[in-house]
Design goal:
Elements: H1 14-23, H2 29-33, E1 39-42, E2 57-69, E3 80-85, E4 91-96, H3 100-103, E5 111-117, E6 119-120, E7 127-130, E8 133-137, H4 145-148, E9 152-155, H5 164-177, H6 187-193, H7 198-206, H8 214-218, H9 223-249, H10 259-268, H11 275-289, E10 295-300, H12 306-319, E11 323-327, H13 331-345, E12 352-355, H14 361-373, E13 378-381, E14 395-401, E15 422-427, H15 433-439, E16 444-448, E17 459-464, H16 468-480, E18 484-488, H17 498-515, E19 521-524, H18 530-541, E20 547-550, E21 563-568, H19 576-583, E22 594-599, H20 604-615, H21 619-630, H22 632-636, H23 655-671, H24 674-692
Helix pairs in contact: 7-9, 9-23, 9-24, 10-12, 11-12, 20-21
The chain binds adenosine-5'-diphosphate and magnesium ion.
């Protein structure tokens, strides 16, 4: 039996259980060793029933004397009551609400370990435990009881029919029989971090020392746990660092920033750039000058002026004779970028085209031709630009907006046809630092941390839906003052169902006919044709319509500086980051802007979200809160931790460990101790490359 032994060959597992474990991603002994308990229980206090005192927490080994599911009236609660005896003369009553799941297994004579807080049952005078933990003990293995009680025990998440008790037994046996892995962590790192050896850590995690502090264990702060958490981050960070180094060394285009480039940029710029914009343009230009591919993420809150920065990078590429691809996640946004880049770039003599999925076949063919010929110097588009049959004659720079929305970053590789173009990704969804370190650990990051001058912070208010009339008169007042307003309904673009569209359409009718009869109201939703969407946007942009009723299709990037009010209906149904994005559609001009969040009755979490938004305009703070309230997985639209390969580590709980792992990984690469490096590269290649999806490490 070794670490790679498939679980079905392990005694006590067999094919059926192996399948259940397999469904949890546990295939080998090694997987099982890393299947860490999610909780620990202090069952050191084992007593006979007669000795149980009210108020204490204790464990008891006993047999079921009788069990009953309670009668008709209480059925809804599924009240399940069991009387236990252990030969000490007293009885213990246990009570579970929704206890159906126990009813089958706790039949008379079943032997169990029960663990919980002791009370007196006034009605019967017996000792009572409400909702205790219970584990069924098998009769054959008498010594087993001592594995499950009388000590600090690990509690595992069950896998189908494999209970925590079975996990405990299995791991106990495996730990006794298998040769635990050698420690791959460089000795120097382990020493500095004062971490236990790997084998020791694995043993302790399943079988904590009996003097271990239960609180420490349950907060995942025990050195054994820290060791395993550190490992996950450390190998990830090493892998990312290697990848980044490698990309840095690959050959790419070396652009030159000539006086002519500066001249063109000066001619193009409609405003004086902010200090922050100047700083990031410098960072980008420095990257572009190096003869290696740029991989840079430009982050900045909504409205911070990222597009103007990107346009300057485009000038550098074009003046060096290269083409620029601009990728946007939606057609609306692509159309807007197209308009923006044309406005800036055509003025200084460049040719800009747009390619989206909704263009006609003939038009598409023509545009593709213009791109292939090299006539088009800038090609703006959606996913359509990434299609195989789009060939650039000489792509030098890819600008990717809201790149997280593209999901798979690899798709970008498609555009890396021929030479290695530089990549500038832009995002207005600030990424909490811990996430940025793991997800974008291999990118360089530039941050615009200053808004263009003259912006007034948006005032955000919360209004209950029964007071929405007041909001409407406020809109009317702003419109009379020459401003414009958005009214947004909670429909997610990708899933806009016809029912939800109808709701938006109905509201549109209601608002345009009843509430604002004399005002031009527009409608925009994801199910409209590209042409209709464009018309709706254009009419709002030119001020032909004053109020735009919309779904979240306007979430990203839409830019109408004259709009001063953003009303979000049923705001409790939106996510934090999403509302912040929506809110960023206003406050783009010099006038005071407002965001009104209209809600019905709310859950606690929804209240918390709304409160955060009313109190803060800071995208980074909001992103942090969003991750806290939703968990990083949800936050990033991926499952679980959001980072493949993290089993025990938790980005929020363990952010300090992550920072340490990152520091240590950087140090390792800096010191370049050849023996350590060789061992580390080998270990990552063998164990972590696939797990983290790191392509070609080392
Ligand atoms: P982002 O893409 O970061 O959300 P945009 O690039 O769309 O922001 O810019 C938001 C608005 O601010 C636009 O109307 C843009 O023209 C304007 N803007 C950008 N930079 C400046 C600047 N330096 N001074 C004044 N206005 C600016
Ligand atoms: Mg933008």
């Amino acid at each position: 039996m070794d670490l790679d032994t498939p679980l079905q060959y392990v005694k006590g597992i067999g094919p059926a259980r192996a399948a259940m474990l397999g469904a949890k991603g546990l295939a080998t002994i090694s997987d099982l060793l890393y299947y860490a308990p999610f909780r620990y229980e202090d069952r050191r206090n084992v007593k006979t029933i007669a000795k149980l005192a009210p108020g204490e927490k204790a464990a008891v080994i006993a047999r079921v004397a009788s069990a009953k599911m309670s009668g008709f009236k209480r059925r809804a609660l599924g009240l399940f009551e069991v009387v236990f005896q252990d030969g000490s003369g007293a009885e213990l009553l246990a009570r579970w609400f929704h206890g159906e799941r126990y009813a089958d297994s706790l039949t008379p004579e079943t032997r169990v370990a029960i663990f919980g807080k002791v009370e007196w049952d006034r009605a019967s005078g017996a000792r009572l435990m409400v909702q205790p933990e219970v584990e069924i003990l098998s009769d054959e293995e008498d010594g087993e009881a001592t594995l499950h009680s009388g000590r600090v025990v690990a509690v595992y998440e069950a896998a189908s029919k494999i209970s925590t008790r079975v996990f405990r037994s299995l791991l106990n046996r495996i730990l006794g029989e298998v040769q635990l892995p050698d420690d791959p962590l460089p000795e120097s790192v382990r020493g500095r971090m004062e971490l236990p050896e790997l084998a020791q850590a694995i043993t302790w995690v399943h079988n904590p020392p009996q003097d271990a502090e239960i609180k420490l264990l349950n907060e995942f702060r025990h050195p054994a746990q820290t060791r395993l958490i550190f490992d996950e981050f450390f190998w990830l960070e090493c892998g990312l660092a290697f990848k980044k180094n490698k990309a840095r060394e690959a050959s790419g285009i070396s652009f030159s920033v000539t006086p002519r480039v500066r001249e063109q940029i000066k001619l193009m710029l409609p405003y004086k750039p902010t200090g922050a914009q100047r700083k990031v343009v410098q960072e980008i230009a420095d990257d572009m000058k190096r003869p290696h591919p740029m991989n840079r993420l430009l982050q900045g809150d909504v409205g911070s002026g990222k597009t103007m920065v990107a346009a300057q990078a485009a000038v550098i590429a074009i003046e060096n004779g290269y083409q620029v691809a601009v990728l946007a996640p939606t057609e609306i946004l692509a159309a807007q970028h197209y308009a923006y880049f044309r406005r800036l770039l055509e003025k200084i003599g460049y040719r800009v085209v747009m390619l989206t999925g909704s263009a006609g076949a003939k038009e598409k063919r023509q545009i593709k031709q213009l791109i292939e010929d090299g006539w088009a110097q800038v090609a703006v588009g959606t996913h359509a630009l990434l299609q195989e049959d789009v060939k650039f004659s000489n792509a030098g720079l890819a600008i990717v907006d809201e790149q997280h929305r593209f999901g798979v970053r690899q798709r970008l590789e498609l555009i890396r046809k021929g030479e290695q173009p530089d990549v500038l990704a832009m995002t207005a969804t600030p990424i909490p630092r811990t996430l940025a370190l793991t997800i974008y650990g291999d990118l360089d990051v530039s941050t615009i941390d200053e808004l263009p001058p003259g912006r007034k912070p948006i005032v955000t208010k919360h209004v209950m839906e029964n007071a929405v009339e007041g909001v409407y008169s406020f809109i009317a007042q702003e419109v009379r003052a020459g401003r414009q307003a958005y009214v947004v309904y909670p429909v997610v673009e990708e899933t806009e169902s016809s029912a939800e569209i109808k709701a938006a359409e109905k509201m549109f009718m209601h608002l345009s006919e009843k509430v604002f009869p004399g005002v031009a109201v527009g409608l925009l939703h994801g199910r409209m044709s590209a042409g209709d969407k464009e018309t709706a946007m254009r009419e709002f942009k030119t001020g032909a319509t004053k109020i735009l009723v919309a779904t979240t299709v306007i979430e990203v990037g839409v830019d109408v500086p004259n709009a001063s009010v953003m009303v979000i209906e049923q705001a409790e149904r939106f996510g934090l980051a999403q509302i912040h994005q929506l809110r960023g559609r206003v406050g783009r001009g010099a006038q005071q802007s407002y965001c009104v969040l209209v809600t019905g009755k709310m859950s606690d979490i929804a209240c918390e979200r709304i409160r955060t938004l009313v109190e803060s305009n800071d995208g980074f703070y909001i992103a942090e809160m969003d991750m806290r309230l939703r968990g990083p997985g949800e936050f990033f639209g991926t499952r679980q931790s959001g980072i493949p390969g993290l089993r025990l580590a938790d980005l929020m709980r363990d952010s300090d460990v992550l920072e340490m792992a990152r520091t240590e990984a950087a140090r390792l690469l800096e010191e370049r101790n050849p023996d350590e490096m060789r061992a580390v590269v080998k270990y990552i290649q063998e164990h972590w490359q696939r797990r983290y999806g790191l392509v070609q490490v080392g």
